Amino acid sequence: MSQSAIRWEKDADNIVTLTLDDPNQSANTMNELYRQSMGEAVARLHAEKADIAGVIVTSAKKTFFAGGDLRLLIQATPEYADAMKAELIEINGQLRKLETLGKPVVAAMNGTALGGGLEIALATHHRIAIGGTKAEFGLPEVSLGLLPGGGGLTRVTRMLGIQNALMNVLMQGQRMKAEKAQSTGLIDALATDTDDMLAKARAWIKANPSAQQPWDKSGYKMPGGTPSTPSLAMNLPAFPANLRKQTKNANYPAPKAIMASVVEGAQVDFDNALKIEHRYFVHLACGKQAKNQIKAFFFDLQKINGGGSRPSKETYPVWKATKVGILGAGMMGQGIAYVAATVGIQVVLLDQTVEAAEKGKAYTKGLLDKRVSKGRMTADKAAETLALIQTTDSHTDLKGCDMVIEAVFEDRAIKAKATELAEANALPGVLMCSNTSTLPITGLAKASSKPENYIGLHFFSPVDKMPLVEIIRGEQTSDAALAKAFDFVLQIRKTPIVVNDSRGFFTSRVFGTFIMEGIAMLGEGYHPQTIEQAAAQAGMPVGPLAVTDEVSLDLGRKVRLQTIKDLAEEGKTLPAHPADAINDRMMDEFGRNGKKAGKGFYDYPEGGKKVIWPGLVQHFTKADKIAASEAEFAELQERLLYRQSIESARCYEEGVLTSVADANIGSIFGIGMAPWTGGVLQYINYIGVAAFVKRADELAAAHGDRFTPPQLLRDMAAAGKTFE
User: How far apart are CA 181 and CA 254, in angstroms?
Assistant: First the structure.
């Protein structure tokens, strides 16, 4: 008997259960074995339908179905387009035969159903999931640069209507818990457990012997109307405008393709709508952007969260923090306290005064109250979480802490004192961490009695929202300490990347190049709005001038002066950057230090939106650069992206970075590198290493040595290598 990914069982009530269970994988995917097995199952259902009362589709895996096989999709090229289209026709043909069987078909989703998994469920007449679990449901293909190609886009549009399908399911690729998916309309009923789910499935089949999809019924009308419906036709022109606003006109073909496929498909019959869906899917899947996003958001992220940069679990078993001391209750400390408490960790929040510590604790209360008000947490759970945070001004309260995170001022002396007091009161061998964003960990570890237990944990602001933590390994940091730090980051549900010690580490160092390049452009005479728009259309979430205001100009200067001092002690000098003079002039001549001061590159009117300071145009913009040409604008975008990738390649060459995945995910999640690029090193792959080196040399000739590619890239180009 040939291998199958689907088990067939028929009960005494003539209800057939199709159990998805790929024998070769831990998760079900739309691979060749699935296609073969589903084809055979559907053919048998039609052949024996006279003796069948209904069908239940469920899974033997932890998840219902994982979706398309991304290992195959990432290899797709334009030459593969016809073969891919044929596979889609086969998959969708099987699902179409399933939903037109003439018998009730129910999806009993025992776990997560995302992408292709949900598309299978959508081809049934009734969908049941187990409530109150961590299982997720949705069509997140847009986050991978794709659209649902297994009929999901077409079916969701006909189920929910054009507007609701776009806004609530497709354009953002929302991942929903079962309860949210039910309220959205993707799931019909919830069950308490597997037995209850299967019982409800059987009951529904018995109660609905003549079940059909709404679009297969006579007289079907699409909810909210079609593009020819006058009320909808009036609003349709706003859809592309809203998309441009949402994406800031950046290079994201997937949302555009989703919108086009939905609108075009809504004007034809179901089967022709599927053909439109196929066409757009194949075009996206064979493009470079989808490959960038698949690599970053699936393979790279999977490698990181799977412990790719963690020392061996066999040598260093998984560790959990039980009591964490946090030194400093300011913006970063209070955020760290919140994320630790929400996963059940005891927290000692310490500041110079109890009042200051209580103010930091109030931040957690505010966030918890908001969750309660939105129904995402019970009041009792919120109170229980808040009670985990102990406030104090005494280091003796650090007794029993197995981990301490220092989040005090960026001053070596202050950090050294904090470390000494913490180690004197916490548990022996405490994992001592610094939240510094720039100061080298090896130097800070000199204050520790056990530098092997000292490590950097660089959080990003706001801590409760930012998904990344940069773990910095000092020269003496042990594997044991690194393993514990890695486990803690996963424990608080963040994504960890691991880098070796250096000035600015990886994220701050690379992010600094983006900021400085934008300011340098201002000094060259480009209009500030042009600079900010170039960043937006390159895919960066915030322009370099706006983000400089956020971190403050004076902080940047403090870091620069400290770096000059430190390098001088090593007999080195810091190369001058064209942005330095602009920053100094902004502060010294115009008194504009950034957002905290109420004025920087932007004005911050009370009660109003920030606006670019008119003085920038007056004092910096040159007449011949008020309106940049198309070529100039494209080069501005290039410069902002190239600088980040070049500096990242230098980090890789110097050994600051040891993992391509860490570089790509760290750049996207930590500093907002344009997601469509797949990250800083994948962007070099996207351009082509040889082509990237050639263009970097051209930019260096035009704008300075900062664009000169490192020898590593020249060697890779010569050898025909890429970042893997």
Answer: 23
Q: What SS3 class is residue 618?
A: helix
Name the active-site residue from 119, 136, 635, 647.
Answer: 119
Q: Let me know the angle formed at the C-alpha of 547 by 544 and 553, rounded to the nearest 5 degrees.
A: 95
Q: What is the rounded average pLDDT for all residues in the chain?
A: 95
Sheet holding 54-59, edge to edge: 6-10, 15-20, 54-59, 105-109, 126-130, 189-191
Q: Which fold has domain 323-501?
A: Rossmann fold (3.40.50)
141 is catalytic: yes
| Domains of the chain, residue spans | 6-209+225-285, 323-501, 507-640
Q: What tens digit of pLDDT does each residue of 442-464 get?
A: 999 999 999 999 999 999 999 99
Point out the catalytic residue in the list 87, 99, 136, 141. Answer: 141
> Is residue 1 predicted with pLDDT exceeding 70?
no
Residue burial 500-539, b: 16+ Cβ < 10 Å; e: rest: bbbbbbbbbbbbbbbbbbbbbbbbbebbbebbbbbbbbbb
Q: What is the pLDDT of residues 280-302, one digit of tens each?
A: 999 999 999 999 999 999 999 99
CATH number given to 507-640: 1.10.1040.50
Query: Does 470 qualify as catalytic in the annotation?
Result: no
Domain 6-209+225-285 listed as CATH 3.30.1330.40: no
Distance of CA 28 to the CA centre of its chain: 23
Predicted confidence (pLDDT) at residue 599 exceeds the cutoff of 90:
yes
